Amino acid sequence: MEAVFNFFGLSLVVFLLVLGYGFGRLAEARHYRSIRRREEAFSDLIIVCCKTVPESLPAGGSQMVRGSVVVSIDYFKHFVAGLRMIFGGRVHTYESLLDRGRREALLRMQAEARKLGATVIFNTRFETSSISKGGGRSIGCIEVLAYGTAILP
To answer: In the chain, N or C terminus with fewer CB closer than 10 Å?
Structure first.
């Protein structure tokens, strides 16, 4: 009888992991579709990381713009990342988390610049920080901040 309960418990854990994996993949795919659509809409807004504005660019003024996002990792990816840390190698689950965070923060910065009428953003920088270290049973979150100087017409 005890073997039946152990099998049932193991089956439940596997089922929940598969369910979490499926819903996590769907949410991530939906977010990437949204990111690609918005990146296409902002394709005319030039973003560069150099610090100086070329003299040929007519500038009426400048203003700092920023975009910030907080992204959390789902339980399944946290589980897989824990296994990867035991055996070593690249942690793809965290790479996609950071990629989505950077791209989303950049899009939010571009949206702010677009509201101001800017066509170019110079001196673009990123800052990434951990909000929750994932200690104990908590899931890790990251904040990504993108900022730069919007050149106004």
So the answer is: N
Task: List the one residue out of 89, 48, 72, 83 whose CA is nearest residue 139.
Answer: 72
CATH superfamily name and code, 2-152: Hypothetical protein apc22750. Chain B (3.30.110.70)
**pTM confidence score:** 0.79
Report CA-CA distances (Å) from 85 to 59, 78, 80, 94, 142: 49, 10, 9, 11, 18
What's the pLDDT tens digit per position in 95-108? 888 899 999 999 99
Q: Which residue has the higher pLDDT, 87 or 136?
A: 87
Which helix (DSSP H) or strand (DSSP E) does residue 17 occupy?
Answer: helix 2-41
pLDDT of the residue at 137? 53
Domain boundaries, the chain: 2-152
| pLDDT tens figures, 1-15 | 555 557 677 788 778
- Residue 6, CA distances (Å) to 20, 64, 134, 149 in order: 21, 59, 29, 59
Q: How far apart are CA 78 and CA 75, in angstroms?
A: 5
